[in-house]
Amino acid sequence: MKQDITYLIEELRQGKPTACQRLLTEYGPAVFRMVQRIVVHREDAEEVYQDVFVKALGHIDSFNPKQALLSTWLGRIAYNESLNFIRGKKPDIVYIDDYESGVEKIGDMTDGDIFDEQTVKHLEKAMEVLPPYEQSLIAMFYYDDMSIADIAYVTGSIPSTIGSQLCRIRKKLYRIIKTL
């Protein structure tokens, strides 16, 4: 597997079209999912998706397999390109105040609360309220099963910060769900 990635990287550095096609086939769906979680409108997400691979192919010489997996490296590019795109747009998102009083602990939830169908619907609605950065952290951790270390690499942060942010976001989601 590692040798296979090394061979793919070498072919990409040589500019071989078959290597580019393989890169898109193997990593494209995951990259697009990450982009689309941050960039909501499909047309915009497709544009950012293309930018991600143009940038990745243009900077393939800077990829260091000792630093990160190829998927993580592509994730970092996708994350940064998506946030850059969002920063260039006016947000149409409603933000919930982080300093709301009466915050309850996530640990106070019972199993019945967690697996209730209505709670799942509320969770989906609550996720839509979160800013793109927070949505992306939750998506990387829960939907993409990325480790905190990988998320830290993708976001250019440190693992302890990501852990704290995830904890804060979970509490925020809980507050939002309670208001729904």
Please give a structural write-up.
The protein has 180 residues and is mainly α. It has 2 domains: 87 residues, Rna Polymerase Sigma Factor, Chain: A; 74 residues, Arc Repressor Mutant, subunit A, CATH 1.10.10.10. Helices cover 72% and strands 0% of the residues. It is built from 9 helices and no strands. It is elongated and about 55 Å long. About 14% of the residues have low confidence.
Q: What coarse outline follows from CA principal-axis ratios?
A: elongated
**Terminal Cα span:** 47 Å
Give the CATH superfamily of the largest domain.
Answer: RNA polymerase sigma factor, region 2, helix turn helix motif
Count every helix, treating DSSP H or I runs of 4 or more residues as helices.
Answer: 9
Overall domain count: 2
Question: What is Rg?
Answer: 18 Å
Strand content: under 5%
Give a quick precis of the structure.
The chain is mainly α. About 70% of the residues lie in helices and about 0% in strands.
Keywords:
2 domains, Rna Polymerase Sigma Factor, Chain: A, 180 residues, mainly alpha, single chain, Arc Repressor Mutant, subunit A
Layout of strands and helices, then pairs:
Layout lengths: L1 H12 L3 H22 L3 H17 L11 H19 L22 H5 L1 H13 L2 H12 L4 H8 L3 H21 L1
Helix pairs in contact: 1-2, 2-3, 2-4, 3-4, 4-8, 6-9, 8-9
